[in-house]
Amino acid sequence: MKRSVIILCLVALACFAFTGSGIRNYQCKKCGTLVWQDHTPSYSGCPAGGSHSWVNLGEVGDRNYQCRKCGTLVRSKQTPSYSGCPAGNSHSWVSLGNVGNNAYQCKKCGTLVYSERTPSYSGCPAGSSHSWKKL
Ligand SMILES: [Zn+2]
Ligand SMILES: [Zn+2]
Ligand SMILES: [Zn+2]
């Protein structure tokens, strides 16, 4: 009986730690700025005019996702939220693979991504497929 109470407490603590450390991707759908933090960024001073219009794209994780419409690159746990693409309507996310220590740049769209291995070629914002070069 006592042991199960202790286990329950541990589970509750683990859940609390997990939800408590949730760093999220926030992007302004007006200016395209991407911020990683655990709370909604300040609304004042959007370079596109007036106040920022933040969209919560979801929890930061170890996979690279890029929108083929606006070119935004995010590190996310799962497919980011589709709403609020600065290029209009909804994002069109493509998974580029796991985050790693190797820098790759696409010579067509200029995207710089840190990847475990050569990122996926599909979904280059500059058209058809990326042309990755390891830096
Ligand atoms: Zn903004
Ligand atoms: Zn987009
Ligand atoms: Zn590209």
Structure description:
This protein is an alpha+beta fold and 135 residues long. It has one domain. It is 14% helix and 33% strand. The chain has one helix spanning 2-20; strands at residues 24-28, 34-37, 54-59, 63-67, 73-76, 93-106, 112-115, 132-134. The protein is globular and about 55 Å long. Mean pLDDT is 90; it is low at 15-20. It binds zinc ion (3 copies). Residues 28, 30-31, 33, 46, 48, 52 line the site of one zinc ion.
Helix/strand order: HEEEEEEEE
Helix content: 10-25%
Structural class: alpha+beta
In percent, how much strand structure appears in the residues? Answer: 25-35%
Which short descriptors sum up this protein?
single chain, 135 residues, alpha+beta, five-stranded antiparallel β-sheet, three-stranded antiparallel β-sheet, 14% helix, binds zinc ion
Write the layout of secondary structure elements.
Blueprint lengths: L1 H19 L3 E5 L5 E4 L16 E6 L3 E5 L5 E4 L16 E14 L5 E4 L16 E3 L1
Antiparallel strand pairs: 1-2, 1-3, 4-5, 4-6, 6-7, 6-8
Bound molecules: zinc ion (3 copies).
Short description:
This protein has 135 residues and is of the alpha+beta class. It has one helix and eight strands, in the order αββββββββ.
